Amino acid sequence: MTRYIDVNDLKRLLASTGVEPFMLGLVDYIESDYRRWDEFQKSARVANHSPDGVIELMPAADRQLYGFKYVNGHPKNTAQNLLTVMAFGVLADVDTGFPLLLSEFTIATALRTAATSALVARALARPDARTMAVIGNGAQSEFQILAFRALLGINEIRVFDTDPAATAKLIRNLSGVPGLHLTPAASTADAVRGADIVTTATADKALATILTPDMIEPGMHINAVGGDCPGKTELHPDILARARVVVEFEPQTRIEGDIQQMPVDFPVVELWQVLTGAVPGRENAEQVTVFDSVGFALEDFSMLRYLHDLARERNIGSVIDLVPAPDDPKDLYGFMQTAAAG
After folding, report:
1. Is residue 196 among the annotated active site residues?
2. Catalytic residue among 33, 196, 228, 300
3. 244-296 per-position pLDDT tens digit
4. How many CA atoms does the CB half-sphere of 158 hold within 13 Å?
5. Are 225 and 140 in contact (CB under 8 A)?
């Protein structure tokens, strides 16, 4: 039998744990999987692009489990009252191929993206970082803020979006979080000035320049979340040229990340190398670091493992007949006829 977690099940699960404690547990799963990088079969996601968006499949597997996510990215969807990103995920047993879990993954993707951002910032940002600017206040913004608060204790946040309604939504949603101070800014430059960490989470599928070199100060950590497909960027290339850039899976990020603007031999460091201690993250207090985040299937695999474990532990979700279970596995037709007659 396959465990099924729908949107309401995931909401109940988050209510039972709390969003920030859930994030902390998820960070542990993601870090654990990145630390055993060589155990995984990895590939860049399979993407089908259209003029207005992209639909992707994202697989990853170790020796025991196989996971994949279906996900889209259509920035114009909000004009039709649809989400920009929608997703579902599957976790299966490698030995048999049996699907163990079918899960909602739209909220789950927002959670794992934020958890990964905070995990990387813990490794790259200055230890004394206390303030963050969030540029782009759409569906991802609250998750980013809560993840950085939970993992790094960041409570001073300056926020900006070209759509004032998005900023108002963000402030309204997080107004009751104890100790969290949100300050709306008049512009990107105003938000970024003096910030220790800058998160960009914009949605437009465009070669945009959200941050320019004049905005960058020594010692900043930049968490570039929005540039995540070909033809979609957020950072001026001169920022990348002067920074230490960390990526998830280099072959994928070369195509989809902000480094798509750079020469093919532009040096980057993969995240697993930093988390295992194979190479240093931040090398000095004045260095500018960039996480060129595009989202990698290993993070979805970690989330699927985490959801599967938590849902069984807390008995959340339902058990469904996703695949047939005939008495004679060689007689699928007979099973179908019996089921139809019943």
Report:
1. no
2. 228
3. 999 999 999 999 999 999 999 999 999 999 999 999 999 999 999 999 999 99
4. 18
5. yes
